[in-house]
Amino acid sequence: MRAAEELRRILRRIDGRGYKTYKDIEGVYNCGEYVLFVDHVQGDPFASPSRVRVQVPQKVAGFPEDAYHNKSREIALRDFLTRRFFDASTNFCKGRRGTGKSGIISIDRPGQEILERSSAFVTEPYVEVRFVMGLPAFGRTVAGRHAEAMFFEELPQIVRASLFFKHLDESTLYEHIEVAEDADFLRKQLVHLGLVAFVADEAILPRASGVDSRPLTGGRVVPFESPESLRVKVILPNRGAISGMGIPKGVTLVVGGGYHGKSTLVRALELGVYDHIPGDGREFVVTNPYAVKIRAEDGRRIEKVDISPFINNLPFGQNTGAFSTEDASGSTSQATNIIEALEVGVQLLLIDEDTSATNFMIRDHRMQELVSKDKEPITPFIDKVRQLYRDIRVSTILVIGGSGDYFDVADRVLCMVEYKPYDRTKEARAIAKKHTAERKSEGGKHFGGISERIPLAHSFDPSKGRREVKISSKGLQSIAFGTHKIDLGAIGQLVDKSQTRAIGDAIYYATRYMDGRRTLKKIVDAVLRDMEEGLDVLNPRPVGDYAMFRGLELAAAANRLRTLSVRQKRIKEMTNDE
């Protein structure tokens, strides 16, 4: 470890020289209150900024052990420190100066969700943050004096303001930690309560806009209020007693007129798999962690998926027991998305008819009379949704506004009226009894089997040109994997581009478990087990811009790699554990 003054001397020595001389500063420096790691120096001022870390000993940082003594609190504290470091860098860094990315100090920026990240760590010996610095230059000439100011004036102020407990607002910090801990506790209670989701009374569900996930403010914001018949009370570790709407296992319909809040409710439930920051409005909207939003996805590639529970007897003898296509229709893609989710352990399906294929959701009696079942390959979801719960114990929450025939298969019906939910189950059942459905069920006696698939390692090639591994995220919804693009646009529960970045590297990491015998689920489970040690397992270098994802999203991304090749397990193989 070198003294901090050595860094100062190097910066003064290379001032005015070629940019590549910045490489001389790579190393570890004792800065008194903290240790500075310059892990990687960018090649030029237009390249990705340099990767830097700071470790502050706990005797200096001073964080009480009760702020991170369990996993919920630890993750929330790390998230809080990342936010404070970002705020401090905005306040104390003078910003861009010179060419390209010169002059920036920045860290992974969290949104409304509290996620486990690789940007900050809290341990008994130290606190660590990982961030980037744009080493300043004019043209491609080192601006050493500006770099010196960044390292010796700006960075110390940022560190002291964000990583020293005595300089943080203690009540705000503990509120952040306790909200996350309570939400995690509540989510774990769902199974004991026989619920798949919970929405707290007084929750604020509407968002500012379609591209702004902060809560809607001003105007007519209607706080959530549970119907009395579904109200549940829970005692949380920190907040104490709260009440709200508990949605039991089974089949739940969400109905109501247009613009009355149906999709807003279900969108909140989709994101209830995550904790949210204080003030978000959805702090205590929690959902079964194995919930998946399902939609139609025209044009996606499908590789040997058994969609026979939904689709059979395709023209020209196409095999739906191992269905493959380069350009799926709405119905085949939606069927595939359900089957792929079942393959890796989904427990709750969230479906909105607005993003579904109409012919996949319903076939009314008039169409049944005109087009006989032997000429219609699709078994609509209405005839399978109860079997999903009865045979596989997978629940469904479904937004439906166009077909009352679903009353026949629902356990409960929620009606949204001016953003308030009403339990209309009794009325829906009375209507179903009064107006007997004329359509005939086409679903058979059972849902059908789920054929597991075994990914083949040779189909995961991340190479590009002379580089053996070239993987990068392109925003939230796309991964460049070698020469191929993975489109994640239909995976609606990703909320942070750092999740996407981590998933890209996790797909490559997963290839170590692709031995021609392990199923996709076993491979995903193996990756998740390794990640219990932390996101760092995905990369041999310290990386500060990963965020935790679920195995469901990892599997969904792998399924959308257009080079994916699999083989299905034979029936007799499925009777034996590996």
UniProtKB/TrEMBL annotation:
Transmembrane segments: none annotated. Residues 170-452 form the ATPase of the ABC class C-terminal domain. SUPFAM superfamilies: P-loop containing nucleoside triphosphate hydrolases. Residues 5-165 form the ATPase of the ABC class N-terminal domain. Residues 470-567 form the MRB1590-like C-terminal domain. It comes from the Bacteria. It holds the Pfam family MRB1590_C. PANTHER family: ATPASE (PTHR38149). This is ATPase. It comes from candidate division WOR-3 bacterium JGI_Cruoil_03_44_89.
